[in-house]
Amino acid sequence: MDFSFKTIKSSVENVLLREKGSKFIGFVFPVRDEGEIKSALQKIHAEHPKATHHCYAFRLGLRGEQYRANDDGEPTGSAGLPIYNQLLAHDITNILLIVVRYYGGTKLGVSGLVKTYKETAKLTLEASEIIIKELESQLEISFSFEKQNQIFTLLNKFDAKISDFISHDQCTITASVKTALKENISEQLSEMQNIEYSFSD
After folding, report:
1. Do 110 and 14 belong to one domain?
2. How many domains does the chain fold into?
């Protein structure tokens, strides 16, 4: 099983294209869930309240199994789909791409719209840095205080990123680890005495 996926490193905004008086502006955001998609869409709506259309497409999940393309009032299939097809062409996921249009008075026709939305999406992605990310799982371990060094050594060995550490007589650590290493970590943790651990994706 593959535990990595392609996405973008950081958001890119204001990639501009003009076509027959209309202005098309591209924005792309790395996103992890629908909540982040909603926030990014609200942000762009607030920044461009007078735009004629806010068209977008997103892909979520390791294989982009969650997706949507939105034409926002443009003719069906003339905006959201060309944007979405660029996400597919670049084989990237956990991403939202928005193209905002300010109508310039001249109709472009469906083929003109398809071409311009596709081109704006393509230029926006070309301005982004595409990276490969490893899929991560959350690990929570509870253990007695004297096991602390042993646990930290193990987490270091597997390059885990600790997000929370509560230290009392009974300690709890929350960390993110590469999903690909989950089985190896489980094996080693299950050999330790008096500890409890659980994974969540």
Report:
1. yes
2. 2
- List phi, psi (to 5°) of 160: -75, 150
pLDDT digits (tens, 9 = 90+) for 48-102: 999 999 999 999 998 899 999 999 999 999 999 999 999 999 999 999 999 999 9
Mean pLDDT, the chain, as a whole number? 94
Instruction: Return the bridge partners of 143, or none.
Output: 171, 195
Instruction: Provide CB contacts within 8 A for 178, sequence distance 6+.
Output: 3, 134, 135, 136, 137, 158, 159
Sign of the dihedral defined by the CA atoms of residues 145, 150, 156, 161, in that order = negative
The backbone region for 127, taken as left when phi is positive above 0, alpha when psi lies in -120 to 50, beta otherwise, is alpha
SS3 84: helix
